[in-house]
Amino acid sequence: MNEFSEKTHTCGTICLKYLLFLFNILFWVAGGAVLAVGVWTLVEKSDYISLLNSSFYSASAYILIAAGAIVIVTGIIGCCATLKEMKSLLIMYLVLLLCIFLLEIIAGVLAYITYQELDDELRQNLKVTMQQKYQQPGEESVTQAVDKLQQEFKCCGSNNFSDWTNSTWIQAADYKRLVPDSCCKTPSELCGDRDHPSNIYKVEGGCIMKLEEFILSQLYILGAVGTGIAFFQLVGMMFTCCLYQNLKEDPY
Question: Which of 22, 27, 198, 230 is deepest in the core (most CB within 10 A)?
């Protein structure tokens, strides 16, 4: 009877080891994906930082990179703890999983609160930034960001194309100019002199609305990914506790 119990115990431990090892591989991949999203956000969308009087966008990217790196390191520790069957490493791994889980909850709450503040700030500042800084000396990053924003999101002006009428750049122009060339559906030199709907993004909506939709969609994606990773972590913590109970006392 004791021999059967010992075999069952050994078999259960082996199964738990493989399950936890598989979990750690998936967890490691998830960490790599989060890190990649952070790098992509920082590299591909960093132009929009100059349009916001807030470090929210860049801070979010750095947080994602840091979170991805921590998850990868935690996954490596988990693999080592599982393969070596060391209780001390398993405890460290369990604590790290619990800390990451709690940080995800805190980050989720802060992201929701910060988005509400960012949304109000975006509405207040984007129009002023576009009107006063576009094509002005020393504001090349803003000009580049506005042009990219209007082309990428197929919009013109902060609320609509008429916002450009009061811009510093338009009013100081020596020749007739209605909107920047980046408002055109097919950009070319001086194409912004004609504001017909067939030529510019006149009826598609302003850039504030498009940028809000983009930021919100990014938060939804991050929320879905975070929820998925949090679920994996709960499963991982359960496997870790079971394996810890099944292992013999570690002499080290």
Answer: 27
| Residues with Cβ within 8 Å of residue 236, at least 6 apart in sequence | 20, 23, 24, 27, 78, 97
Q: Which H, E and C letters describe the chain, residue by residue?
A: CHHHHHHHHHHHHHHHHHHHHHHHHHHHHHHHHHHHHHHHHHHHCHHHHHHCCCCHHHHHHHHHHHHHHHHHHHHHHHHHHHHHCCHHHHHHHHHHHHHHHHHHHHHHHHHHHHHHHHHHHHHHHHHHHHHHHCCCCCCHHHHHHHHHHHHHCCCCCCCCHHHHHHCHHHHHCCCCCCCCHHHECCCCCCHHHCCCCCCECCCCCCHHHHHHHHHHHHHHHHHHHHHHHHHHHHHHHHHHHHHHHHCCCCCC
Residues 12, 166: Cα–Cα separation, whole Å: 73
Q: Is the pTM of this model over 0.85?
A: no
Distance, C-alpha 44 to centroid of its chain: 12
Phi, psi dihedrals of residue 163, rounded to the nearest 5°:
-60, -30
